[in-house]
Amino acid sequence: QVQLQQSGPGVVKPSQTLSLTCAISGDSVSSNSVAWNWIRLSPSRGLEWLGRTYYRSKWNNDYAVSVKSRITVNPDTSKNHFSLQLNSVTPDDTAVYFCARGLMATGFDFWGQGTLVTVSS
Amino acid sequence: QSALTQPPSASGSPGQSVTISCTGTSSDVGAYNHVSWYQQHPGKAPKLMIFEVSKRPSGVPDRFSGSKSGNTASLTVSGLQAEDEADYYCGSYAGSNNAGSHNYVFGTGTKVTVL
Hints:
The complex is a heterodimer.
Chain A: E1 3-7, E2 11-12, E3 18-25, E4 36-42, E5 46-55, E6 59-63, E7 71-76, E8 81-86, E9 95-103, E10 107-111, E11 115-119
Chain B: E1 9-12, E2 18-23, E3 35-40, E4 47-50, E5 64-69, E6 72-77, E7 86-96, E8 102-106, E9 110-114
Parallel strand pairs in B: 1-9
Antiparallel strand pairs in B: 2-6, 3-4, 3-7, 5-6, 7-8, 7-9
């Protein structure tokens, strides 16, 4: 059974970088049949797909246009996890952040527990 | 990329059916059979209920069904039960841009109440 365990701070100051990690068990970040995604949920934006990393002979990334200039999603094969970095955060980035396994074509089938990140000074 | 449009709320009595719509465009819902539906209970992670418009993952009751016509997808919950009360979100593959970057868009969400 695939399990995703998130970790990272719950409060980030404005203009700083939000950093979260998602540890994978029961699957591999290097799998060539799935992708590893970050998604957030906020009252103002609802659910919003942010970005993903996946391996298909080489590492690939896709990012949502809304955050493309500020986001990095990286795999770590030695720890079998992947991470999210979101730079220059504002209060509008306050949300519950989820990591999730899945493909855009077939949906996101396994999710992390969610991390409430509040952007506040 | 704009969010897909869902009604804010829907309701039904136990045993009845409720249908939720999800309206997109010819660039997302209308272009691909890559529509999924997610159920979210308060404080929990979303759960995949339907993928590829009408397929159910293992363990999802057959009370949940999906369909699509043009730019609008629909989720129907038949035989409503108390545990079906939750928020429901649709999602769709939204194609790739000239740089080959792929995109995904969610719906605005619908709160289903079991009366």
